[in-house]
Design a protein that fits this description.
- This protein has helices at 51-56, 67-79, 84-88, 96-116, 154-170, 187-208, 210-215, 219-235, 249-257; strands at 5-8, 12-16, 22-25, 136-138.
- By secondary structure, the chain is α+β, with helices and mostly antiparallel strands.
- Helix 4 (96-116) runs parallel beside helix 6 and helix 5 (154-170) runs antiparallel to helix 6 (187-208).
- The radius of gyration is 18 Å and the shape is globular.
């Protein structure tokens, strides 16, 4: 049987097989923003009261009457209707970048809530590497402190990831909240990078913490959140190639066939 190991970073990933090494080149786009201090988590498994979840929940600046507010109201209304395929579609006449931004923030919050529920089970000791399956390891890289792809424990990687996304959301240059201010030219590239990185948290949870998710009664929350994520990426063509889903490819294929 041919065995292989994949090491995924945000600059390059190398896949070695018996015949010839194959190199996957990742999109090297990074936002030029400082990385803020990350709010430490407490060691509670409660889905509703985790301290890190409360501190890290980042609503997009969506005041009543603004486009962001209206889009969020639309998304919440359609989500209650039961059709995830309908939820992910761009509302008629709306700006696509605004729709991507609103949903990116919502997915960030979903992922943060889910991961916040199992943080006491994800430690540098239990998860010394940021992996999905053993064949897929993710390395962290940014423009500030880790300019080279760096191996680190899963919780450390996820802390850097959440802080990076939070800083992006808070950056008015990247995520303008005022009416009439356009999104930057590189916004679509940045969005794809964020969605790709946030997917890795889902992959880690499914591959390493699914039994805990079931024990906590959060299986339906995880599956619904991830299916919503998958359908949104599929609808808006945010995946970068057929290998984007890696270890969860079969699950994703199943989700794409149903609604």
């Amino acid at each position: 049987m041919t065995s292989f190991i994949t090491t995924v970073s945000d600059s390059a990933a190398t896949v070695s097989v018996k015949l010839e090494p194959v190199e996957e080149v990742d999109d090297p786009f990074f936002i030029e923003i400082p990385e803020p201090a990350y709010v430490p988590s407490c060691s509670q498994g409660d889905f509703d009261s985790n301290q890190r979840t409360r501190n890290q929940f980042r609503p997009r600046n969506a005041h009543k009457g603004t486009t962001s507010y209206q889009l969020r109201q639309y998304a919440e209304a359609t989500l209650g209707g039961g059709s995830l395929r309908k939820v992910v579609k761009l509302p008629e006449g709306e700006d696509e970048n605004e729709w991507l931004a609103v949903n990116m923030v919502d997915f960030y919050n979903h992922i943060n809530l889910l991961y916040g529920s199992i943080t006491e089970f994800c430690s540098p000791q239990s998860c010394p590497e940021m992996k999905a399956t053993d064949e897929f390891e993710y390395l962290w890289q940014d423009n500030e402190n880790f300019k080279r792809p760096t191996k680190m424990p899963a919780p450390t990687y996820i802390e850097h990831l959440m802080a990076w996304v939070q800083a992006s959301i808070d950056n008015e240059t990247v995520f303008p909240s005022r009416i009439g201010v356009p999104f930057p030219k590189g916004f679509s590239t940045m969005i794809k990078q964020v969605f790709k990185r946030m997917y890795r948290v889902y992959a880690h949870i499914y591959c390493h913490h699914y039994p805990v998710i079931r024990e906590l009664g959060l299986e339906a929350h995880l599956n619904t959140s991830f299916k919503h994520y998958v359908l949104f990426i599929d609808e808006h063509d945010l995946a970068s190639g057929k290998d984007f889903w890696g270890p969860l490819g079969d699950l994703v294929d199943s989700m794409l066939r149903t609604d």
